[in-house]
Structures are given as structure tokens and as C-alpha cells.
Design brief:
The protein has 387 residues and is mostly beta strands. It has helices at residues 3-28, 197-205, 296-304; strands at 38-39, 41-47, 52-57, 63-68, 83-88, 99-100, 111-118, 124-130, 147-154, 160-167, 175-180, 186-190, 211-216, 221-228, 231-236, 242-247, 252-258, 265-272, 276-282, 288-293, 312-319, 329-337, 345-351, 354-359, 364-370. Helices cover 11% and strands 42% of the residues. 43% of the residues are buried.
Length: 387
């Protein structure tokens, strides 16, 4: 056989394998899914806080705290810090713009995931993932040191958020989301095993399972779980005996049994979601609300360029009532949009019939009112106590 034919055959085979690989990746990312928008209710866009990547309800349920940052800014432009905002839910007659609370945050403050822990004595602690930006850095540069910022929260007629401390650790390689256990302990997800942009891309497209969960016990951090792909949202079951971690590229929810004394995690189950899950919120009943990206590649393109759209999705997972099935849920798609109303949904929380949906890049978030279910009671949501 002539060498040219061999080379030509190898080129054709390589191209064919690459094409098939791309088709598989697109299918795995949901790109071929048909989006038929639906929601039983109506939504109002709320301006005043750009890039609401995560949000959490305060214990009274009268407001939500929002993590806001303009993540599309590039060097040479405005590099103002992000902020933590409060959005009131007790004013039914009119929607008020969010109120900035984090005026005493660190100077280079660019918040991402957050969680609020409130104990029975009314004391509140807000944990926030911070992605500081190195001055003059390019998007491809190695990012500045990642941190967890800890705030004291006080509710009341004059709500107050006071910065308490900054937590640094080498294990905080690429932190995404955080969930508090009490006023000093927390878990945080590393969505990648490397901080550099090029290594992160290799992880994503090579489907390398290098993401992890880190546990901070109040004094030091340690690895709690590894071998994950793009560990994104994290949340605790109300009794503190299970930890939930969403895997965006695996399109799944991982469930870990948790030792409440040591914080150790043991894999218990993996729930296929058929969508790329982002942040998770948990109600006292154990019901999960998960914001997701049904077309992950569309979300990646949308996150990098204005003018693009990415579908938004919100799932509700009710715990199974079947005895002996703590890791089984009844899954319902509550909200689906093609990106016209909201692009790139990243978080969702519910209070009664109100459903707030955030986006890490849009200039607004959604305040939605769900239609009442026949005969269903109107339940109020409250932030979880320490567990």
C-alpha cells in the first residue's frame, strides 16, 4: 500500500472520529434538545443587581440575599467590585430594587456562591465564595487567590451585613459554591482541579474527574470528596446527614452520606437529571430546587458574549415518601425558557408562591409568582438552621 494512501486514510479516520466525538459531546450537552417554554405562573424581571449568580432566603423569609457581579467585564473597562444585595419579599404591592449591603466587604470583592446559616438565637452567618481579580489580568491569566468571605448577618428593621474574616487555603483551587454547617464550619466545591484557564479547558473537554469538595472544620480545610466532574452547587439536607453536589458535565446530582461529628462524606447515590445542574437550594421539608442549563454549550457561548441566549430551567425534587428511600426524589420541571425571558439560570429559591430565579450574567433576575395548585396550602420558606 502506498504511503500516501495510508496517510490519507489516517487523516480521514481521524476526522471521522473527531466529528463523531463532537456529535457525542453536543448530544451529551443537550444541544439537540427541543426547548418548549412553560411555567404555571408569571414572572417579572428585576433590575438593579447584575449577574445574580446565587441567592438565599433570610430566616424570616421576608427577603433574599443576592450574590451580584458583572462577570463579563474585561481588563481596561470598569472593574468595580460586586456586592451582596437584599431583595425584599414582604412588599406585595410593588417590587423594590435590591439594596446593597456589602459596603464594608474586602476591596477586591467579586462574589460567587453563597449560603446563610441562622441559629435559634437569631444569629446569622453568611459564607461567600470570592473570586478576586488580579489588577490588569487577562481572562486567560491565572486568577488571583480564591477566598471564602465570612459575614455576620443581622435581620430587622435595619438589616446589617458586617465582614468578619477572610479564609484562605491552598485547597481552595477553583471554588464555586459553599454551604454552611454552623457559624464556622462549611463545605465548598472546587469545580476544577486546576486554577489555570487552559488546564480547566482540558478537564472539561477531556471529561477528567478532578473536581472536589472541601470541608473547613473551623480551623483547617481538608479534602472531603474527589473524583467529580465540574462540582457546582452544594447543599445540605435539613437534618445535616446528607450532602448534595451537582455535577454540571455529568448532568447529575451526587448524594453523600455525612458524619455530623467529623464532617466525613461517603458516596451514597447518583441521580441522573438529564440537564446541567447549577446551584441547589433546600427547603425545610427536604425539597430541592435546582437551576440548570439544558443546553450546556449554549450556556458557555452565552457566558462569553453579549447578544447570545441560553435556555433557563428550574427543577423541583421532592423527597420520595417510600420508606427506606432517602436518596430518591420525584422530579418536576417547574420552569423552562428558551433564553428570551432569562438566560443562563444559575439559582432558584421559593417562598410560598414566589419563586426567585437568578442568572450569573443577565442584567436582571426574575421574581415569579406560581399559580396555586388546587387544594394546596401556601407554605412559607425559611433558611435552614445550623445542622
Amino acid at each position: 500500500m502506498r504511503p500516501r494512501r495510508v496517510i490519507r486514510g489516517l487523516v480521514i479516520a481521524t476526522a471521522a472520529l473527531g466529528f463523531l466525538g463532537m456529535l457525542w459531546l453536543m448530544a451529551r450537552s443537550g444541544q439537540f434538545r427541543s426547548i418548549e417554554p412553560h411555567f404555571s405562573g408569571h414572572c417579572t424581571p428585576v433590575e438593579g443587581a447584575v449577574g445574580v449568580e446565587d441567592l438565599v432566603l433570610v430566616a424570616s423569609g421576608r427577603a433574599a440575599l443576592l450574590s451580584s457581579d458583572d462577570r463579563r467585564r474585561r481588563p481596561g473597562g470598569d472593574d468595580s467590585p460586586g456586592g451582596i444585595y437584599m431583595y425584599r419579599l414582604d412588599r406585595l404591592e410593588a417590587i423594590e430594587p435590591p439594596l446593597l449591603l456589602s459596603k464594608n466587604a474586602p476591596e477586591n470583592f467579586h462574589p460567587h456562591g453563597l449560603d446563610l446559616v441562622t441559629t435559634a438565637d437569631g444569629r446569622g452567618t453568611l459564607f461567600v465564595v470570592n473570586h478576586p481579580r488580579a489588577p490588569g489580568a487577562r481572562p486567560s491569566d491565572r486568577p488571583a487567590e480564591r477566598t471564602i468571605e465570612v459575614f455576620d448577618w443581622r435581620d430587622g428593621p435595619t438589616p446589617r451585613l458586617t465582614h468578619r474574616e477572610t479564609i484562605r487555603d491552598p485547597l481552595l483551587v477553583s471554588p464555586n459554591d459553599v454551604v454552611g454547617v454552623d457559624h464556622s464550619r462549611f463545605y465548598v466545591t472546587n469545580d476544577h482541579g486546576s486554577a489555570s484557564a487552559s488546564a480547566r479547558r482540558l478537564e472539561d473537554y477531556g471529561r477528567r474527574a478532578l473536581a472536589s469538595v472541601v470541608y473547613f472544620d473551623g480551623a483547617r480545610a481538608r479534602l472531603a470528596a474527589d473524583g467529580l466532574r465540574y462540582a457546582n452547587g452544594v447543599a445540605l439536607r435539613p437534618d445535616g446527614r446528607a450532602l448534595y453536589v451537582s455535577s454540571s458535565t455529568d448532568r447529575a446530582l451526587h448524594v453523600f452520606d455525612r458524619d455530623r461529628e467529623t464532617g466525613a462524606l461517603t458516596r451514597a447515590a447518583t441521580i441522573e437529571l438529564d440537564t446541567s445542574a447549577d446551584n441547589i437550594s433546600v427547603e425545610p421539608s427536604g425539597t430541592l430546587w435546582i437551576a440548570a442549563h439544558p443546553k450546556l454549550l449554549s450556556f458557555l457561548l452565552y457566558s462569553r458574549a453579549l447578544g447570545r441566549r441560553s435556555p433557563s430551567q428550574v427543577l423541583r425534587l421532592r423527597p420520595s415518601r417510600r420508606a427506606g428511600a432517602p436518596a430518591e426524589f420525584e422530579l418536576e420541571e417547574v420552569y423552562l425558557d428558551d433564553g428570551s425571558e432569562l438566560s443562563g439560570s444559575s439559582a432558584a429559591v421559593r417562598r410560598g408562591r414566589r419563586l426567585l430565579i437568578g442568572s450569573g450574567f443577565d442584567s436582571s433576575f426574575l421574581d415569579c409568582t406560581m399559580d396555586p395548585s388546587p387544594g394546596a396550602p401556601i407554605l412559607l420558606e425559611s433558611t435552614l438552621l445550623a445542622r
